[in-house]
Give the backbone structure.
Amino acid sequence: MAEIQTQPISEVPQASSFHMIAAMGGVGFLAGILIVLTYQLTLPVINKNKAVYLEKALFNEVIKGATHKIAYKIEDSNLVEVTGEAAMNAQIYACYGEDHHLMGVAVAASGQGFQELIRLVYGYSPEKEAIIGLKVLESKETPGLGDKIEKDPHFLKNFEALDVSLTPDKSRITHPIEWVKPGEKNKPWQIDTITGATISSTAVSKILRSSTEKVIPIIARHLDQLKTADFPAN
Amino acid sequence: MTAEPQNMDVFLKGIWKENPVFVMALGMCPVLAVTNSVINALAMGLATTFVLVMSNISVSLIRKLIPKQVRIATYILIIATFVTVVEYLIQAISVEVHKALGAFISLIVVNCIILGRAEAFASKNGVFKSILDALGMGFGFTIAVLSLGVVREVLGSGTFAGFRVMPANFEPWVIMVLPGGAFFVLGGWLMLFAWLRERSVKRSEV
């Protein structure tokens, strides 16, 4: 067996500072070019994939059964239609069925989670005046704990009919969303949080509360505009 | 043709004799975390193999240009670059897989198998052998994560790569898709490998 050759640190030939900086700088330069190239090449495909993913989430989980959508952003309490790439970051998606009948409105919202931003989209049914679906689009919550907000069936059941009905003058929500300890939900506007994912599930509740308080009255005011929207050719 | 078996050995040792997971117990974090389904395990295995091959090629190519004092920093820089590249590629292939793997793609940077092979092998050998070494280690890692992923998904969800394989009345063993299940399955595989090794040693003694 060959003996292992060891060399004391002091005997390793000392490279000049210039050599070290040049080596690291050169590798860093090439690394930068490679990353930018990959980013540029993959960006169009990634955007397309994200759009497909969003549409699938909207039509399969948030507003089940919808087939068409029109994206809007909120500008000074008005809804302005957006198309193309801007539609990816829209705040509101009016979702329609096959017969162009408004089935519900999906609202994108985000807020601070346990570690990073949680991005989600929830479905609002103007007929039922309730949240009827929720999908977490992006989160980096702790695997096995915080990420239960995405798949825990009991937690997701909260969002099948979460009451967000408005006051008669439609200016605000009668009962703002509240969150309670697991199993203590006894009002339709309350959310059961998750044991072992308290911070993450509370974060989702807070995001919903602040978003619904702001957005639902605006949707209610523009409901006729959404119901009679002109349809794109697709 | 004396070089050929040697090359073959370089490739095969990562798969069996020096399997990074079952023998060297390296890279345990992704092995336990993202093996709850076959697709996740396969994606993680292939992503790691890609980073291993590319970083081994790069390190082997520049091994004579890099001063010893800054070699580890340089290797990390190279590995981080390819991890970023693979992160974009996975997003371009499937947003769902990217979402399922979450933070663990970025964590390939600190997977000790990759830095280990760069330092122990690629920095001392030519490009061709470094590729073989990376492929062997990468496939060894992929086989290991897949063998966990298959058991955990079939028992924990009753499906294989999303397709139902267990009878409809099968009650899924939920523990299998939870972190605890990863330890049980890993323990089971390690036991099997240890038993096989022991048996072959005993046979060769006889």
Notes: The longest helix of chain A spans residues 17-62.
